[in-house]
Amino acid sequence: MDYATNYDVGDRKRGGGINEDSVALSVFEQGHRSGVTADGTDGNGIGRDGAGEPDESEGPPANRSAAVFALADGAGGHDAGDVASYLATTVVCEELAPVVAEAARRDPGDFAVDIDESLLPDRPSATDLQTAVADAIVAAHRAVVAYAAESGTQAYTTVVAGVVVDGEVHYGWVGDSRAYLVNGARQSIELLTKDHGVVQELHDRGEIDDVAAHVHPRGNEITRALGGAGDGDPETASVPVETNSVPIFAEDVLLVTSDGLIDAQTDAPALYERYVEAGRSDEAAEVVRDAVVTDEEIRDLVLGSDSLVDAASGLIDLSNDRGGKDNLSVVLARDSALPSTPGEDEGMPVRAVDPDDPVEDRETVILPGE
Question: Is 289 contained in some domain?
Fold first, then answer.
């Protein structure tokens, strides 16, 4: 598995602000014998000779990878957003790293190892892994609440976190940090999360359109977060966590980001007013799209970069070029040992949390978990 992380305080805060974002990634990388096997080839399509040995001229055998990721954006304006985000990412990874290792151990057949199933842990379902992610996020919430109670401060943070194992990503989120899948085979970007924020609620009610949502003055207001103001019980504190599971392919890049990437434009309120005053015309909409960071730009930058490291730094630069309004953090990961993206005639799984085109309008769809 290849991965990269990057984070920045943001141009507007560079003169004295602090970075309240936090990222964490734990990768379980395993190699054995001749590598991962699948239908006579390893996960990278490396051929094997008649004796079952890898053809070394084709490259090295593929390892099996699993991972835990967590990204948190501490709420600005509160006493300890930086502490809250640190606690969130570290607690989540501490809770989920053993879950990933055990889930991976359940499949010795990937390495052509024959072990009686009675000696192996039970295979976790998607529901099991989503529950583990939600439990880890609640544990992080309680850690932040405990800190707030002990220190007498306000400590809040968003979080998006999950596990990548056995060709699927199982994830959960609270707040407006996001997860995407950028697919090179389909030249697509799919949003896996839905913001817990005022602007999202306005959009869901049809009160604002996609363009206005980019620059709405209330874009920094979230409706759900981890943590508290020191008045909760750390032993019983809870928070609603949204979860999901989707397949992930060799051509996918998993991108996790704080809202500093999307909400980079410092002139957003003025752009919103101009757009509304112009009657939401196509011309005014184009001005907004040119000024903000769009999903299409994110897709093109990720797919056009030579490496994930370059993509991560490029996203930081893009955000700062558009205003650098807030802290920004990104995590990117891909695994070339996974199965390839289905062809155009095979049907593509529905992975976006809120697809642009209705499922019933697609010729062939594969629903997650089916």
Answer: no
The verdict on pTM exceeding 0.85 is yes
Query: Is residue 253 assigned to a domain?
Result: yes
pLDDT in tens, 257-307: 999 999 988 899 999 999 999 999 999 999 999 999 999 999 999 999 999
Domain that holds residue 232: 2-47+54-206+221-258+325-340
CATH of the domain at 191: 3.60.40.10
- Would you state the torsion angle of the CA atoms of residues 172, 176, 181, 186, taken in this order, to the nearest 10 degrees? 140
Contact of 21 with 258, CB cutoff 8 Å: yes
Q: Is 281 part of any domain?
A: no
Round to whole Å and give the CA distance between 55 and 49. Answer: 6
- Give tens-digit pLDDT for 54-107: 444 456 678 889 999 999 999 976 689 999 999 999 999 999 999 999 988 888
Neighbouring-strand partners of residue 253: 182
Is 126 buried (19+), middle (13-18) or exposed (0-12) by CB count in 10 A? middle
Length of the chain counted residue by residue: 370
Q: Is residue 264 part of a domain?
A: no
